[in-house]
Amino acid sequence: MRASYDTLFNKAKSVLEKDPFSGHLFVFINRLRTSMKCLYYDGTGLVIVSKRLERGTFSKINPFYKKEIVLTQAEFSLYFEGADLEKRFIDSPSEIKKSYQKNTCRNGSALQNLIV
Question: Could you list the residue range(s) of the whole structural domain that residue 30 is in?
Fold first, then answer.
């Protein structure tokens, strides 16, 4: 979380392949999910907003969800305050759900798992 304007700008441009001047808010979260930095362009310059939670962590986002995650302003406000938005994101891709649909018990009988 030592990254500043130039580093976050370059990550948004090269890693995320997005235009940092688009007006979108780019969110960067540390590995422990206790700190976040947001980068956006307000029309006159780059702005960084930073927050470290004193207790708890930011919601975990499903690593199997490969699409771009877009939050509404209200969802981002909740997320920024540390609210749990885990159910907002897709639980698992269909390929993973299929592999967990059927398991076998020790006695060989089929067991159906409920995937919520």
Answer: 5-91
